[in-house]
Amino acid sequence: MRHDKYERDARLLGAELERDPDNARTVFHLAQTMRDLGDRDKAIALYERRARMGGWGEEVYCSLLQAGILKADAGDWPAAMDALSRAWESRPQRLEACYELSSRLRGLGRHRAAHAFVSAGLDREPPEDLLFVQPWVYRWGLLFEYSITAYRVGDIDGSLGACDRLLSMPDLPDTHRRQTLTNREFAEQRQATRSASWAPPPDWRRGPHLSDSNCSTCHG
Question: Which terminal residue of the chain has fewer beta carbons within 10 Å of its beta carbon, N or C?
Fold first, then answer.
C-alpha cells in the first residue's frame, strides 16, 4: 500500500512539474518521493536540481544533505563529501551533514579527519529550523562519534569524558549505551597500559546514519 501511494504521488508530482517546472517545492517533494521509491539516481538528480534553484535555505540544505547521503550509500564518496560539505556550508547551524561527514569518514578509517569534523560541531544547540531537524544528532549523535574518534587520535581522556557524558543521558538508546560501556572499558584499559602494542577493539559500533530507517532525515 505504501509503495502504491509513492507511485501515485510520483505521477501527480511529475505532472505538476511538467506544468510548472520552476516550482521548487514540487521538485523537492518529487525528490523525496523518488527516494522513498528507491530510485536513487532520479532522487539525487532532483535534489541537486532543487539545491540549484535556491530559495528557502532549509530546503536547500535538506536537498544537499539527502543527495550526499544517497551518494554515500551508492559508494561514491568523493561526490558524497562534496554534497555534504555544501550542505553544511549552506546552513552552518545545521549539523546533520557534519555528523554524516564524521561518521562516514570514521568508517573509512580517516580518523583524524572525522575527529576534526565532529569536534567542530560538538556541544551546539539544535537550531530553530522547522524542516526535518534531527534532535538526536545534537543530543548524543555527535558526542557518540567524538567518544570514538577521540580514542582513535589518542585523546583517551577526551574519549572517557565523552563516554561518561553519554552514559549520564537517560535517553541514550540501549544499543549505544551498551556500546559506550564497551568503548569506555577499552579506553580505560588503554589509559592504564599506554602500550604501543595494545590493539584497538575489533568492533567499534558505527553511529546510525541518517539513511537508517530509525534515524532517517527528511522523511515525510
Answer: N
Long-range contacts, 45-51 (Cβ 8 Å, 24+): 48/83, 50/24, 51/86, 51/90
Packing angle, helices 96-107 and 57-73, rounded to 10: 10
Angle, helices 77-90 vs 40-53, to 10°: value is 30
Cβ–Cβ under 8 Å, residues 100 and 210: yes
Q: What residues contact residue 23 under an 8 Å CB cut-off, 6+ apart?
A: 16, 17
Instruction: Tell me if 123 sits within 8 A of 164, measured CB to CB.
Output: no
Which residue, chain included where needed, has cell 516550482?
23
Angstrom distances, CA of residue 44 to CA of 41, 47, 69: 5, 5, 9
Measure the CA–CA gap between 148 and 126, rounded to whole angstroms: 22
DSSP 8-class letter at 168: T
Taking 70 as the threshold, does the pLDDT of residue 90 lie above it? yes
Name residues whose C-beta falls within 8 Å of residue 181's C-beta, 6 or more positions apart in sequence: 163, 167
Whether the CB-CB separation of 217 and 150 falls below 8 Å is answered with: no
Q: What is the pLDDT of residue 205?
A: 53
pLDDT in tens, 165-197: 999 999 999 999 999 999 999 999 999 887 555
Q: Is the pLDDT of residue 214 over 60?
A: no
> C-alpha 132: how far from its chain's center?
12
User: In the prediction, which pLDDT does 37 show?
Assistant: 96
Contact 131, 66 (CB under 8 A): no
Q: Where does the pLDDT of residue 122 fall: very low under 50, low under 70, confident under 90, or very high at 90 and above? A: very high
